[in-house]
Every structure is written in structure tokens, then in C-alpha cells.
Amino acid sequence: MRDFRKLEIWKNGIKIVKHVYELSDKLPSAEKFGLRSQITRAVVSIPSNIVEGCSRNSEIEFKRYLEIAIGSLFEVETQLIIAKELEFIEPNELQFIFNLIEKEAKMINSLINKIKVAKG
């Protein structure tokens, strides 16, 4: 079992959760059960799937949970773009979080590729 607390992808995932929650507070109250609910569930899924993968004994299962985490990451990015397009969030408020998302995607993909290479 891996110690997820030492993984930079988990730490960055937690940072993304924090910032997305801050942004989601800016969404209209009418979106409480719509976009806000969807985006907060998706963002929490990122570090949660990394942790769940860490608890697995096989590299194949770990890789699968990393793939789910990256899917959630792109889901969050899309939802933030939707929020921007609906003018719920100012475009300048998104650059920092988009940079974190890009960094997270690169780190997760790198780890997935390392697992693929190790498997042969």
C-alpha cells in the first residue's frame, strides 16, 4: 500500500478542491443543486480516486483509479468553462485554477505512463 500523503498528485488535488470550492461559492444560489453540486462532487473525486488507487494492491488497479481521477479533473475543467460561459465566474478568476489543473493532468499522466512502462 502506498502512502498517499506523500504523493504530489494528491497534495495538488487537495489544493484544486480548495480553490474550486472557493470559486463555486460565486455561483448563483439557483445553481446549488445544479452546476455547483456537480462541480464539487467531481473535484472531490480527484484526490479521492488517487487515494482509493493507492489502497489497491495491483498496479493495474492503481492505474485505473488514476485514469478515473484524470477524467474527473477534465470534468471539473469543463464545468469551470461552462460557469465562465454562463458568466457566473470572471475569466481572470480561472487562470490560477487552470494552471493547477494542467499541472495535475501532467503529473497523473506521467504516473500512468510509468506504471505502463513498469508493467512491460
Kindly describe this structure.
The protein has helices spanning 8-24, 35-54, 59-85, 95-119. With 120 residues, it is mainly alpha-helical. The chain has one domain (4-119): 23S rRNA-intervening sequence (de novo design (two linked rop proteins), Up-down Bundle). It starts with 7 loop residues before the first helix and ends with a helix. The model has no long low-confidence stretch (mean pLDDT 94).
Radius of gyration: 15 Å
Write down the overall mean pLDDT.
Answer: 94
End-to-end CA span: 21 Å
Order of helices and strands: HHHH
Structural class: mainly alpha
CATH H-level homologous superfamily name:
23S rRNA-intervening sequence
- Measured by DSSP, the beta-strand proportion falls in under 5%
- CATH level 3 topology: de novo design (two linked rop proteins)
Main sheet characteristics: none
Count of alpha and pi helical runs? 4
Which CATH architecture would you pick? Up-down Bundle
In percent, how helical is the residue content?
over 70%
Q: Tell me the count of domains.
A: 1
For the secondary structure, the number of strands is 0
- Which geometry do the CA atoms define? elongated
**Poorly predicted parts:** none
CATH class: Mainly Alpha
